[in-house]
Amino acid sequence: MVTTNENPAAKTRFWNDEKTRGIIYQVVTAALVAFIGYYLISNVQDNMAKQSIASGFGFLEKEAAFEIGEKSIEYSAADSYGRALVVGVINTLKVSLIGILLTTILGTIIGVCTLSSNWLISKLGTIYVEVFQNIPVLLQLFFFYALFYEAFPGPRQALNPISGVFISNRGIDFAIPAQHLAWSYMVNAFLAASVITFFMVRWARKRQERTGQQFPSFWLGLGLLAGLPLLTWVVCGAPTELDIPALKGFNFQGGKNISPEFSALLFGLVLYTASFIAQIVRAGIQSISHGQTEAAMSIGLKTKHVLSLVIFPQALRVIIPPLTSQLLNLTKNSSLAVAIGYPDFVQVAGTTINQTGQAVEGVALMMVVYLTLSLLTSVFMNWYNKKIAIIER
Amino acid sequence: MSTNSEVANIKPPAIDVGVLGWVRSHLFNGTLNSIATIFLLLVGVKFIPQFIQWAFIDSVWFTSGQECHEAKGACWSVVTQNIRFNVFGYYPYEHQWRPLVAMIILISMLVYSRDWKKWNRRLGYLWLFALFIMGLLMKGGLFGLVSVESTKWSGLPLTLLLSFFGILASYPLGVALALGRQSTMPVIKAFSVVYIELIRGVPLITMLFMSSVMFPLFLPEGVTIDKVLRAQVAIIIFTAAYVAEVVRGGLQAMEKGQAEAAESLGLNYFQKMRLVILPQALKIVIPPTVGILISAFKDTSLVVIIALYDILNTTKSILNVPEWTGFSTEAYIFVALIYFFFCFSMSRYSRHVEAELEYTTENK
């Protein structure tokens, strides 16, 4: 008996064994991918050698020889490609960060509006969501950009809605406080107030958890954040001088200018993404059952506490993951800047590719920058999501 | 008894029912809401007549650009006078009925197969036949139809082509990637994860840039692929990653019992997937798939950046003609309406399917 009963695994042929077959599949896939990769790379090398295009990232050191219209750091045509690309990254970050902030606020407001008991408000909210969601963001960018150039007058007849603000087809010019030492001191005072508020809120929460006593940390924090800079301003002699933009020749001098490209890009991105965020916020609030509200009211919470302590923290858990992907979409969509001439990273990289012909390196740089941005955003949002997630036993 | 009937005869107060009641409970419930309603009505009274005056009363519809510049209102002539170029672009003028027929076939096929209960083998063959006819109409070269180069394809047909084939071709790739991501084999799983996350992390523009400047370098010497096809490949590669994530959601929603039951019947991996898992998983992801189709449709407008003439770019080139510069509001509103029509009907459809799926699962 023992001798005839062979090991059943020995009977199956090796190609019928699941484990062996798995290994074969994987080896074949890896070999195929490696072969395709090798083939493409060798083609690229051949083609680049024939067209005498340099390879490698040496071009980053070379002189860029093109101007960039909008820059937050010193840059001129004599600077290197590397520096030009950094200017582009900063421009991308600038429009993305401001856009993320504004679109979150606008999207939340509209999302709450669609749930309003006022028929007019909720219908307007729904119409907004449907219209802006169903029109390509690029078309919206073109529309706002064209609006700036066609609907707004030249600098000489600039619209002047509030004194110190001028809207023309050269963008929005507005007055800023003139150079004074007090302003930098005020920024420092604000930072100090933020740090103090942060620790105060933490202390107040700990104390409430321990003893149940509440501390008016919100109002005190607000007072600190507003009061400390104000105090600094008064101590420094309360400077009120403004740098008002004035018409010189064909354009405004002084003040601060927001270019039409930047405005159109920001407008388009914010309005488009807000329509998606509004839907997410609405779904999040609707996902909380009415029993939660009733339970919170029956233990005697005020309406504002029902919202802030019961409904909102729970809705946030539903809202955060899809919100993250929308904010990432906004960052990625900011690359559409290239279509209306705002010098974001893709535009600068595109110009670089055109001038040097090093397409592979250029596209690789684009991918690396956007992947890094995506990764950073999702790491932050995942951290936040974990922080607010339900703590289970 | 008599008191009861008296009570029944008392009517509710006039301001609680009918139009008045509706207005009171929907527009003026509370001080804040009343203020908001009045404010919005005032804004409406100020701006809506202005808009109607501009768009309909002072507007001109069938004039030359010269007369448009003199008119006070909207110049819809920019749309009506250029409609054929706007919709069909550089497709030869006398053959423009061909893309028109192709588009009509595509749309009627889509409308015809909207009900997923009707999907069967015969419909599949019908689709193959329809695709062949559409290809023949667009490309020509057979049965006495003049051949038209794909570089001439532009306007709305190009937009529809890129988005429809984008999702059609990316679907099998996406399903394969989703299965790869679920796989227990580490190498295959790693490739799928890297592909999906890499593509989802970068904007479509980088893919299109790749298609326009990098693909030519990838090919051996002497081989060229035309621009439309390259953009189409970029869109397929891009869309596949998103399809994969949607399909993964469907796969994860499947009960484990289904897979175990299939295995205990003696089905191998491919039979299990093809006969048991995928038919169920793909059905529940119809609504999010339509969502991807909508974004693919909107995203095809990005080919403007690599100088393909989709409907947005034909509009832009009309606006570059001196006769028609300055009327971008009107022209863009027209294109926006076209996009809105397609996207809105698709999203309505996806909501309809969603409701239907929920209904069938609840009645099980």
Description:
- Helices cover 67% and strands 5% of the residues of chain A.
- Residues 1-5 of chain A have low confidence and may be disordered.
- Chain A is globular and about 70 Å long.
- Chain A is mainly alpha-helical and 393 residues long.
- In chain A, the strands form three sheets. Chain A has a three-stranded antiparallel sheet. A two-stranded antiparallel sheet of chain A has the order 3-4.
- Among the domains of chain A are: 8-50; 81-162 and 260-388, Orthogonal Bundle (MetI-like fold), CATH 1.10.3720.
- With 364 residues, chain B is mainly alpha-helical.
- Chain B has three domains: 2-49, no CATH class; 77-91 and 148-362, MetI-like (MetI-like fold, Orthogonal Bundle), CATH 1.10.3720.10; 93-147.
- Chain B is built from 17 helices and no strands.
- The longest helix of chain B is centred in the last third of the chain and has 35 residues, at 328-362.
Tag the structure with descriptive keywords.
heterodimer; A: 393 residues; mainly alpha; MetI-like fold; three-stranded antiparallel β-sheet; two-stranded antiparallel ribbon; 13 helices; disordered N terminus; B: 364 residues; 3 domains; 17 helices
